[in-house]
Automatic annotation (TrEMBL):
PPR repeats lie at residues 134-168, 169-203, 204-238, 239-273. The lineage of its organism: Eukaryota, Viridiplantae, Streptophyta, Embryophyta, Tracheophyta. The keyword Repeat applies. Residues 50-59, 80-100 have a biased composition (Low complexity). It comes from the Eukaryota. Residues 38-49, 61-79 have a biased composition (Pro residues). Keywords: Repeat, Transit peptide. This is Uncharacterized protein. The keyword Ribonucleoprotein does not apply. Residues 33-100 are annotated as: Disordered.
Length: 516
């Protein structure tokens, strides 16, 4: 029977695995320069006219070639960075153009935390020309400040707007209400909400949706329900967006009964469930390990082709492993591989699905696929194969696995060390492997775990690691902190009782009495 174990080892200071190959690429933000003054720079003077004797076409400034009729204009050149290098299109932070002019300057100053200067820039710009004092410009600046959590500055701009006898729109009121709510200033948000009726503006669901979402983000779930009741009493009824927000926030809080009740209401009203809402429901069922409902939600998500984060994929895999649903684990790997490609996480899931079933044919099939795909051999893959051959008591294949790891220059981690000594306990001769590790200095490295956490979930810690954990927990705290624990220190700790417990078969531990 397979044993499910917790993610971390309590043996000693072990570095958790860092599956950097699954992380999404990071994009370099555009670099903005702060304005040197609030006044816009004067336009450059026009170049002086040349004398008539000068040539019309100069070698340094040739005139552009003529285009034939019907030929399209050439594409503009890529943007240049301040250093002069060309910035590729994929390095831009978003497809939406960055705000330019005073709005761009205000956005830059607001993102830099200089909200006071941002308002000064806006005031200078609008005061230069009376026509710029209008509702549209104030709306852009107020919403910009609220989005960047400068609600007090946005309120100052709001008051200044009213001093010019401009009537704020519902969008401006919504921006301020949602800004207060995001900052957990719900009293100010409700007070602003009351002003909407005072000025005669109609209340719409968008106003309440932002409030409900803010309550959920602050885990104020009872206030979410109260806000829905207030919304209905004000004559504004929940729409599709409202129900999706409620389901998402309740799912994140693990309130399954409320989630399912609102889900039934949404279906009865023939409204659509957004893909992101389905993913939130799936994650809630996965966290609570409700297998049947998790599988139903997962099948719904597959139909929408919604994106699944790596953390959620790992949670799904853990639930399948703990419930011995190894065929479902294989389906999960194939499903994810079909959408994002077969990365290291997918290969790990596919290997584990066969290894947990003790299927030699399945393991060999996945290994052949990995070789055809030229997947890079890693410590995770090596330890999965080593665990599998240890379970099968195939010591020859275990030897081949250790040899391949050495040829690939893959250093052992604490899981590999544990597999070796667990194999020695049942008759494997690990002397040659241990001698190579000593000769290469691997055992002098600081102990860490680089293996994917799913491997420990599937196979457990093993005898050696559990023994190290037990002996390490018995040490005084001063001894734990007084040294950096190396692999050789842990091996010596594990064999510190060999005089009373006897020597392991298949390994001459006396030969390595002082591995340090």
């Amino acid at each position: 029977m397979w044993v499910a174990v917790p993610r971390t080892l309590a043996l000693f200071p072990i570095t958790p695995p860092n599956p950097s190959s699954f992380s999404s690429p990071s994009f370099s933000p555009l670099v903005f320069s702060a304005p040197s003054s609030f006044a816009p720079p004067p336009p450059p003077p026009p170049p002086p006219l040349r004398a008539s004797s000068s040539p019309r076409i100069s070698p340094t400034h040739p005139s552009p070639p003529r285009r034939a009729p019907g030929n399209p204009a050439p594409a503009p050149a890529p943007a240049k960075t301040p250093g002069g290098s060309t910035r590729p299109s994929w390095s831009r932070p978003s497809t939406r153009a960055a705000p330019s002019g005073p709005v761009g300057a205000v956005a830059f100053l607001a993102e830099s935390g200089r909200s006071g200067e941002a308002l000064q820039v806006f005031d200078y710009w609008k005061n230069n020309e009376i026509a710029r004092i209008n509702e549209a410009n104030y709306s852009r600046i107020i919403r910009l400040l609220c989005e960047r959590s400068f609600t007090s500055e946005a309120v100052s701009a709001f008051q200044d707007m009213k001093s010019h006898d401009l009537i704020p729109s519902l969008a401006i009121y919504n921006a301020i209400i949602h800004g207060f709510a995001r900052e957990k200033k719900f009293d100010e948000a409700i007070a602003t909400l009351e002003k909407i009726s005072e000025v005669g503006l109609p209340r719409k669901s968008e106003t309440y949706n932002g409030l409900i979402q803010a309550y959920g983000s602050h885990k104020m779930y009872d206030d979410m329900s109260k806000c829905v009741k207030r919304m209905e009493s004000d004559g504004c009824f929940p729409d599709e967006v409202t129900y999706n927000i409620l389901i998402t926030e309740f799912a994140r809080g693990g309130l399954i009964e409320r989630v399912e009740r609102i889900f039934r209401t949404l279906l009865s009203k023939r409204m659509n469930l957004q893909p992101s809402t389905l993913v939130a429901m799936l994650e809630a069922y996965t966290d609570l390990e409700i297998l049947e409902k998790m599988e139903k939600a997962y099948n719904r998500v597959l139909k929408t082709k919604a994106f699944l984060k790596e953390s959620l994929i790992r949670k799904l895999a853990k639930v399948y492993i703990k419930n011995h649903r190894f065929s479902c684990l294989e389906d999960l790997g194939n499903d994810i591989g079909g959408t994002v490609g077969r990365n290291d996480l997918v290969w790990c899931i596919l290997l584990l699905s066969s290894a947990c079933c003790l299927s030699r044919k399945g393991i060999e099939s996945v290994v052949r696929e990995m070789e055809l795909a030229k997947a890079q051999f890693s410590i995770t893959f090596a330890n999965i194969l080593a665990h599998f051959y240890l379970k099968m008591k195939d010591f020859r294949a275990l030897d081949v696995t250790f040899m391949r790891a050495r040829k690939e220059n893959i250093k052992p981690d604490i899981v590999t060390i544990g597999i070796l000594f667990d194999a020695c306990k049942i008759g494997y001769d690990g002397t040659r492997v241990l001698e190579e590790w000593v000769r290469n200095g691997y055992l002098q490295d600081i102990a860490q775990m680089r293996t994917d956490e799913l491997v420990l979930t599937a196979f457990g810690k093993g005898f050696f690691l559990m023994k190290c954990e037990k002996l390490y927990s018995l040490l005084e705290s001063d001894k734990k902190r007084s040294r950096s624990w190396r692999y050789c220190d842990l091996i010596s700790l594990a064999f510190s009782e060999r005089k009373t417990g006897g020597q392991q078969p298949g390994l001459n531990t006396n030969k390595y009495e002082d591995l340090g």
